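Below sits our specimen:

——
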Amino acid sequence: MKAYIVIINRNKAINKYNENKRRAQNIDYDDLEEQVTPKQLDLFEFEGLHSAIKKLPDKYKDIIYLYDLMDVPVETIADLLHITEDAVYKRVSRARTLIKRLLEAGEKDE
């Protein structure tokens, strides 16, 4: 049951992302040039981050979605995944390291 809840949360996050992505496709970008600030341009890096997260193994992907994106407390994540709190922190650390490597590899490809 707990694993089912994790999967539901992950799918809801993906659905929300896709919904936002569809809305972004309907924007006239010519008008946006005048309105967008350099700080807002950093938001475009989110897509690269999302694709890096999608490439992670499921055990790391679930942790990142729960811990970083959904702000679920560590105790709850540990209970849901039947692991210790220390294991949650370790997986978060490993997932972030993998994401960093994937993003750096993506920059080298460009």
Remarks:
- The chain has one domain: 2-109.
- The domain at 2-109 is CATH 1.10.10.10 (Arc Repressor Mutant, subunit A).
- The CA atoms of residues 11 and 94 lie 22 Å apart.
